[in-house]
Write a structure and sequence with these properties.
There is one protein chain. The chain has a domain of 73 residues. The N and C termini lie far apart (50 Å). The chain is elongated. It is an alpha+beta fold and 117 residues long. Strands 1-2 form a two-stranded antiparallel sheet. A two-stranded antiparallel sheet has the order 3-4. It contains four helices and four strands; from the N terminus they run H-H-E-E-H-E-E-H. A hairpin with a 2-residue loop joins strand 3 and strand 4.
Amino acid sequence: MVRLGNYEPDEAAWDRIVVSQSVLDACMAEATRGMAYAESISPQRTGDYRSHFKVEASTVTLPAYGVRAAAELSNDSDHAVPLEFGTQPSISAGSYRPGMRAQRILGETAAFLGGSP
């Protein structure tokens, strides 16, 4: 008869794994894949928005789980907020300017990375 022992997780080892270089490398690779997708669906009129994507190594602290390795995909173009969230129509000096619909480039990229349609 095989005798089974009691499993006790090694939380200190797990805490080292989730901030390890291997996990960070995987996060950076996935964020870089996301950046390529975001660039591919970005407007191309001036190229400014498309050229301002960046991926940075980071950590995130999750309340129930602690610190984890992470990678952040962002865009610091002046066009980022209007493209992501859209704009309201406005009337200025008697002329009407229609609003721009939200294009949700980073939102669409998150869905792409997460496997959502």
